[in-house]
């Protein structure tokens, strides 16, 4: 199985709100990766290796 995920960065001002199919918004750190899916952990690992997250 191949899973494609795209990660985006942006500057944002305002308030983020869950809406429609988005049930919850949460800010996670690399230390919170145990709360994520296997694929999300792989993304977080790659972002950490690229020094895009702490």
Automatic annotation (TrEMBL):
Name of the protein: NUDIX hydrolase
Domain of life assignment: Bacteria
């Amino acid at each position: 199985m191949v899973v494609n995920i795209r990660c985006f960065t942006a500057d944002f001002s305002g308030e983020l709100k869950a809406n429609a199919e988005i049930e919850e918004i949460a800010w996670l750190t690399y230390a919170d990766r145990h709360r994520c899916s296997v694929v999300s952990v792989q993304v977080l690992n790659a972002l950490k290796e690229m020094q895009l997250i702490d």
